[in-house]
Predict the structure.
Amino acid sequence: MSYYGSPGLDLNFFFNTSVQLSVLKDKRTSLEEEYYNQLQMSLKKLDFDRIPTLKAIQQEILDKEFYGFWAMVQSFPMTSFSRDDTNIELYNDMNEIHLKRKMMFSSNRMTDTLKYSLLRFDELGIFN
């Protein structure tokens, strides 16, 4: 089965769930450029004749920023939580769920990332 989608969706999900905050702040443009270089190389190997420009890819990322917000508030909390602290049995106990949620959203990584990202999303105007 083959699938291809929007680099804007893929990169926004990656940036907002998997990248350390310091890298996101300081290296985001470099990551976009490296992604583009690898994409361009792959498309050339496949003899693809309509290779998008870096600017087009960056615009696609910008156009899909709301998906990045969604990934940050929906997926990032789960991906940033220690696997040792979770299991399927957790979903049977509402008290345990509330405790884990509180732990999740009070971690320094979570609060620092939320502060930075929410301000950035607001500056981009995705909430307008």
